[in-house]
Amino acid sequence: MILFMNKYGTSIRLVTLVLLFFVTACRAETPLPTQVAMAPTVVLPTWTPEVIPPTNTPVPPPPTSTAVPTATKAPPTDTPTPVPLPTDTPEPTATAVPPTAVPPTSPPPTAVPPTIPADPILGQNILPNGSFEDGHYNKDGIPELQLPNGWYFEWDEGPTGFGSNPWDVYVRPETRVLPASQLPPDEHPLFIWDGTYTVKMFKGNGAISMRLLTDIYLEPGTYVFEASLFPDMVMGYENHQKIWADDPVSAEYRFIVTGAGTGWMLPVIGQRNIVTHTFTVTEAQTIQLGVGFRGRYALSTNGYFIDAWSLKKIEG
Fold it and tell me: Is the pLDDT reported for residue 72 higher than 50?
């Protein structure tokens, strides 16, 4: 280098200085690439771990949403709520036993006819509220079960025992204590026979079996129980006129007296029937007294009007 400088003089030194300047400049820029290279390598690793969002996807949200359908399967367990229907069916079967136990028109063995004189002298009517004039009440607060004071009511529900069709089922009847004002004037003589009230027991399109009863204390003696009833058994209408049931067993009644009742008997349908039952009490006691009614067919109208009941002791 010195030789070169001696030969060309000062200008060569100048060139040498320029070269040195470029060399130092190049050396100063070399660190820059290393910094650029380091920057990406540092940035890439730090961002890849932040891709943690994928780990959020398997988190509980999907399972919780799938658990909701399992909760919706709870309604199937609620569908058994109709279970009361099966529970009710056994109860009717139990209540249906009494109707089938006593065959129609056959008196029970306890019904022994007493001996009565040819022309008996009867005492006063001792039956409480026998003409149903002394007020009424609703059984268990049910408006459809309106009963005369001093009397109570029983009924059957379940299979009638007379068939296996859907309508061969006893249903709860309805009862009304009706004043004359709630009946057309032309029906007053048909259904009211003492005072201004009558009792109607009925059900439309349903079979019925029921009992109107009272408890009464009786001294020893022979008694005559008399009841008036109108079987209102209607199988249809023509020109607004009733067509009476043509099967005689559509209406049945029986006397109920403790130890001295009767079997089922057949009244005449569509008119007033005055029926009597005589029985003897051998010792003073409280007895159950009343009449049972039955309508084994689900007729358009199935019912009875009753009024003017009496209980009189034979005096001689």
Answer: no
Sign of CA dihedral 91, 231, 250, 107: positive
Q: Which residues pair with 159 in a beta bridge?
A: 169
- Is the pTM here over 0.90, yes or no? no
pLDDT above 60 for 179: yes
Q: Where are the domains of the chain?
A: 2-71, 92-313
Record: fold of 92-313? Jelly Rolls (2.60.120)
**pLDDT bucket at 116, cuts 50 / 70 / 90:** confident
Alpha-carbon distance of 112 to 261, in angstroms, equals 9
22 CB-near residues (< 8 Å, 6+ apart): none
What is the per-residue pLDDT for 170?
98
- Least confident piece of the model among 56-60, 115-119, 208-212: 56-60
SS3 breakdown of the chain: % helix, strand, coil, rounded to 5?
Answer: 30, 35, 35
Q: Is the pLDDT of residue 60 over 70?
A: no
> Which residues have CB under 8 Å from 237's CB, separation 6+?
243, 300
